[in-house]
Specification:
5-stranded parallel β-sheet, 25% strand, disulfide bond, binds flavin-adenine dinucleotide, flavoprotein, 468 residues, 13 helices, single chain
């Protein structure tokens, strides 16, 4: 059975980029077809990314916070962890959100087709569903097909102990010894979950340091905490071989920081990055250019080289983050509707929801040094924050970078509990062109972690009167 469907705008992929674009375009009066190969909307982020990982990280946080109270006068027993119930709760959260998206799509009269979409030419996508097939003819298209986990060649994929982030999010008991390959955001977030639930975690990262894109001084509170808790954190280390040994896997390491002997693990997570799905949508049949890494290049209105075909989200470039995808989705929808719009965000904030969290935006010192941009910095250590001390978590730091010429904020980085929430004040400050004085003259509630931003600005201005 094949039917033909006509629309103004076809959106390929229903992740945060795709559904945002589809909703905005529908609200602007267009007839929309949204194509998604999964049976639910929400993409990686809602189903197997941001949301389920944050549910598990919350559980992890409760366990470690409870344990941290034991020498402060409150002792709980050993936590009893029921992974079946925990998975159910996590899935309930996901379902609430994905059901909500379906309702929002229905309310906007968006046609949702579940199947794999492939361009057949520059005005048509063929969609193959489980039973049905559709030919969707469109005036405009938005490619929002996202990214997939990178696989390491030669590894025994199919072995139950070898998982990617999707497998790691589906708790199947709690492994005794776990190896996390890749010390980036995704790997370290999962390491944090399994450590709290009782696994003995080893992290192996190829670069010199974990989370390579952030400055080293803001990484150090995280590094200190995890080197204290985990079995090992190897940097400058490659897992050269991974071999089956019954139910377990044996890893052989290589590199400057590597252990000499092979080690045996009950579970191995590969989190070495994600690659864009540019080559999997038949874009070349529509004449859409794809670069050598699989990204689809776009201009500031999210247009590809074919002007009526747009691309957004993970598929069109780094950083691969949900809020960048939805921001770009809005632009593509508005550009198609003929509105004056273009990508003009000054920064894409990044957050590792580890314990402690690491969050940064704008310029980093490393980038500034590389580009020769002159800057000043001020750093406020959380062990002088009253609020951080009352939470028993003085392991944090708030850093501001600003312009030597006019004092305007250039970047910020925060390590500590809730750093991800705290970062947004600095992002707004950057977008509004605020300088250090603007921050220093803004009253912040006391005692709060947000005060560390105020204190860092006062340190920078040399107007510190008291730190608490
Ligand atoms: P996706 O969410 O990847 O959606 C693309 C959709 O297109 C998918 O549903 C896919 O099924 C569909 N599709 C692809 N090809 C086809 C086709 N040919 N036909 C039909 N459908 C197709 N980001 C954050 O900002 N914060 C976080 O905390 C965070 N945590 C993460 C945790 C994990 C474990 C992972 C893996 C990722 C995380 N990310 C996080 C990244 C975030 O998930 C992505 O940046 C985001 O999902 C990108 O959105 P997107 O719309 O570009 O694509």
């Amino acid at each position: 059975e094949e039917s033909v469907v006509e629309c103004d705008t076809l959106v390929l992929g229903a992740g945060p980029g795709g559904y945002t674009a589809a909703f905005r375009a529908a609200d602007l009066g267009q007839k929309i077809v949204l194509v998604e190969r999964y049976p639910v909307l929400g993409g990686v982020c809602l189903n197997v990314g941001c949301i389920p990982s944050k549910a598990l990280l919350h559980a992890a946080r409760v366990v470690t916070d409870a344990a941290d109270m034991s020498d402060r006068g409150i002792r709980f027993g050993e936590p009893e962890i029921d992974t079946v119930r925990l998975n159910e709760w996590k899935q309930d959260v996901v379902n609430k959100l994905t059901d909500g998206l379906s309702a929002l799509a229905r309310a906007r009269r968006i046609t949702v087709l579940h199947g794999i979409g492939q361009f057949s030419d520059s005005h048509e996508v063929e969609v193959s569903g489980q039973k049905e097939k559709w030919r969707v003819r469109f005036k405009n298209a938005i490619i929002a097909a996202g990214s997939s986990a990178v696989k390491l060649p030669g590894f025994p994929y199919g072995h139950p102990a070898l998982v990617d982030s999707t497998g790691a999010l589906q708790l199947d008991g709690i492994p005794g010894r776990m190896l996390v390959i890749g010390g980036g955001i995704i790997g370290l977030e999962m390491a944090c979950v399994y450590d709290a639930l009782g696994s003995r975690v080893t992290v192996a990262e190829f670069s010199e340091g974990i989370i390579p894109s952030a400055d080293r001084d803001v990484i150090s509170p995280l590094l200190e905490r995890i080197t204290g808790r985990y079995e090992a954190v190897y940097t400058g280390t490659r897992v050269a071989r991974l071999e089956e040994s019954g139910k377990q896997l044996v890893a052989t390491f290589e590199g400057v920081g590597a252990p000499a002997k092979p080690q045996t693990f009950d579970q191995v997570l590969v989190a070495v990055g994600r690659h864009p799905n540019g080559r999997s949508v038949g874009a070349e049949k529509a004449g859409v250019m794809i670069d050598e890494r699989g990204f689809i290049p776009v201009n500031r209105r999210q247009q590809t080289n074919i002007p009526h075909i747009y691309a957004i989200g993970d598929i069109c470039g780094e950083p691969m983050l949900a809020h960048k995808a939805s921001y770009e989705g809005r632009i593509a929808a508005e550009a198609i509707a003929g509105l004056q719009t273009e990508y003009d965000a000054l920064t894409v904030p990044s957050v590792a929801y580890t314990d402690p969290e690491i969050a940064w935006m704008g310029l980093t010192e490393r980038e500034a040094d590389k580009k020769g941009i002159p800057y000043e910095k001020s750093v406020f250590p959380w062990n002088a924050s009253g609020r951080a001390l009352t939470m028993g978590r003085p392991d944090g730091v708030t850093k501001l970078l600003w312009s030597r010429q006019d004092g305007r904020l250039l970047g910020a980085a925060i390590a500590g509990t809730n750093a991800g929430e705290l970062l947004s004040e600095t992002t707004l400050a950057l977008e509004m062109g605020a300088d250090l004085e603007d921050i220093a003259l803004t009253m912040h509630p006391h005692p709060s972690l947000s005060e560390t931003v105020l204190f860092a600005s006062e340190v920078g201005l040399g107007t510190v009167t008291d730190l608490y």
